[in-house]
Amino acid sequence: MKLSNMKPIKTWKSFDEQIEILQKRGLIIDDVNKSLGYLRMIGYYRLSGYLYSFRQIDKNNPKTRLDDFIIGSTFQDVKALYVFDKKLRQLALDALERIEIALRVNIAHTLGRYDPLAYKNSVCFSNKFDHNKWLNKHQELIKRHKDNSFVKHHLQHYADFPIWAVCEVWDFGTMSKLYQGMKSQDKNQIAKLYNLADGKVLQTHLHAFNFIRNVSAHHSRLWNKPIVFKANLKGFDGQWRQLPIEKPFVYFCLMKRMLDVICPNSTWGERFLALLEEFPQVENGAISLEQMGVIAN
User: Fold this and answer.
1) Secondary-structure percent of the chain, ordered helix, strand, coil, rounded to 5
2) Each residue's pLDDT tens digit, 246-275
């Protein structure tokens, strides 16, 4: 693309000027000093993702938004949405940490029965799996964690890492990629632990969870973000299928479903429902839980 077709970079604006821009576009700011404090801590650009939902829809192009805000939109409502989303990301990371650790154990236990070094043996995986690519990523993670005590211990005292030890260096993406590459019978065995139809179904759940984890870990907006990698709900009943598969809510339900197996006494589900009660109730109807994928009743 030619540079002549590109828009010029926007000019720098002071925090006071940013407040003026928001007010000119119709955002109600009752406490300017407090709002300035939030802009200094959060930044206009990060906050713009939450401001977007309060902007007027372009009647000529309903998929885009105008600069002006919906009448009655307030800075306080935007801030409340930001805080809600922050708590939502924290809940997601809490659940996904437990799921990640449990799946590492499941994978290590399943493959370890063949060989402590099964993760290095391509015979243990599907023919379609790019095993060399995965091993390269695996080696990068060992180097990254070389200062960890257990990594040092194995490098000094053992010829190699058994799978039940080395799985501790895997991140969620590396773990889910290895699961994807396992043979069907092994994947199915693990999927049954979570009352899922087969390994392919769990594979799609993990793919979506990894996307949500990355969004959450990088502090991005989550509450109404389209989920790029959609889960397969094979074997789920009609109520599940009513939930929009491209929106976040159903994935929190899937997390809860797995947590019921991993840690049945967890209060995570209650905390999630309590957080939904904290969703900002805005008078102008600019935002709603339906945009997150929640269906009433």
Assistant:
1) 60, 5, 35
2) 999 999 999 999 999 999 999 999 999 999
- Note whether 121 and 115 are within 8 A (CB): yes
The region that residue 155 occupies, defined by phi over 0 for left and psi between -120 and 50 for alpha, beta otherwise, is: alpha
Q: How far apart are CA 236 and CA 50, in angstroms?
A: 33
Distance CA 70, CA 74 (A): 9
Chain CA centroid to CA 267, Å: 20
Q: Where along the chain do its domains lie? A: 13-73, 83-277
- Give the span between the Cα atoms of 260 and 173, in whole angstroms: 22
Looking at residues 45-71, what average pLDDT do you find?
A: 94
Taking alpha carbons only, the member of 180, 184, 120, 136 closest to residue 112 is: 120
Amino acid, single-letter form, for residue 108:
A
